[in-house]
Write a structure and sequence with these properties.
Blueprint: E1 8-13, E2 19-25, E3 33-38, H1 46-56, E4 60-65, H2 82-91, H3 94-107, E5 116-120, H4 122-133, E6 139-143, E7 160-163, H5 169-172, H6 175-187, H7 194-207, H8 212-227, H9 235-254, H10 258-274, H11 283-294
Parallel strand pairs: 3-4, 3-5, 5-6, 6-7
Antiparallel strand pairs: 1-2, 2-4
Helix pairs in contact: 3-4, 6-7, 6-9, 7-8, 9-10
Length: 295
């Protein structure tokens, strides 16, 4: 990386030889240290560059690594195209992402000083991952994002500041009902009451949004789905799969991991919809029907 007095995109090399872009914002006040900002699912956006300018005014040299470069070089995803960014995030390899973040940390670390990383949403989860992988990390600040596995917490030596919406009344107000619906769903596995508790779980989930129009559409959609619910030879097995998906959605929401919650919900609904599709008829069925007419 070459030095510059103005903010610009630089090319870094990760430990495995991968080259990635990284926005470097030099400090505009006497230098106090280094900071790495980790992106959400939208890439190195102008909004993040604006955040970097504010930290630079406080004497920090800021790096924003392009963590999607392994999937699509210089990808910046418009805010109204979140599914595209989510897909790239889900396709990313965490070990590779850690190497890319480490390259950014090294780029703004000077004279033995330790560098701080800060991340939002997906970036919040990658802050936690880097803290597990790098015992030399100066500090980490995470806004939402996936927590590290409990067994990995012992590897973290850096101080962390973690932000989760403990006072988000709009979301948290429905948590007790959400948990109760999940428990009722569990108790109904393998019984004739599972379909009702399945619907009740989704209704509570949609109620959290607080939009009566969405709730009405949900009731219409679910009523139609339940009317077409196909029979199954092993209800307990079928119900267990559905319940585990419900549980994963619930846990992701409790953890503040909206990306995982949305991904599991997508797969859950897609699986439920496919189960209601009839198998296409075979050509042999036509000839059999014609043969039956002549008998």
């Amino acid at each position: 990386m070459t030095s510059s007095d103005t903010a610009s995109m630089h090319r870094l090399t990760a430990k495995d030889g991968h080259e990635l872009d990284c926005w470097i914002q030099p400090p505009t006040a006497p230098r106090r240290g280094g900071l790495v900002i980790l992106q959400e699912i939208f890439g190195v956006t102008d909004q993040l560059k604006g955040v970097a300018e504010k930290y630079a005014a406080q004497g920090l040299e800021v790096a924003i690594p392009a963590l999607f470069d392994r999937k699509e070089r210089s990808a910046v995803v418009p805010f109204d195209q979140a599914p595209r960014g989510r897909d790239m995030m889900l396709a990313s390899d965490l070990e590779e992402t850690v190497m890319d973040m480490d390259a950014a940390v090294q780029a703004v670390t000077r004279d033995g000083q330790k560098t701080v990383v800060i991340g939002f949403c997906w970036g919040g989860g990658t802050v936690n991952a880097l803290a597990v992988a790098d015992p030399e990390l100066g500090a980490g600040v995470a806004y939402y994002g996936r927590q590290p596995d409990a067994g990995d917490v012992a590897f973290i030596e850096a101080p962390l500041m973690l932000h989760y919406a403990g006072l988000d009344e709009r979301i948290n107000a429905g948590i007790d009902a959400f948990r109760a619906a999940l428990e009722e769903n569990f108790e109904a596995i393998g019984t004739g009451d599972f379909a009702r508790t399945d619907s009740a779980f989704h209704r509570v989930l949609v109620s959290v949004i607080g939009n009566p129009v969405i709730l009405g559409l949900h009731d219409m959609f679910v009523s139609a789905m339940l009317a077409q619910r196909p029979p199954t030879d092993d209800p307990a097995k079928h119900d267990t799969v559905a319940y585990e998906e419900h549980r994963a959605i619930y846990q992701a929401i409790i953890d503040g991991d909206m990306i995982t919650a949305t991904d599991v919900m997508d797969r859950h609904l897609a699986r439920s919809y496919r189960a209601r599709l009839k198998s296409p008829r075979k050509v042999s069925d036509y000839f059999q029907k014609e043969a039956d007419k002549t008998d």
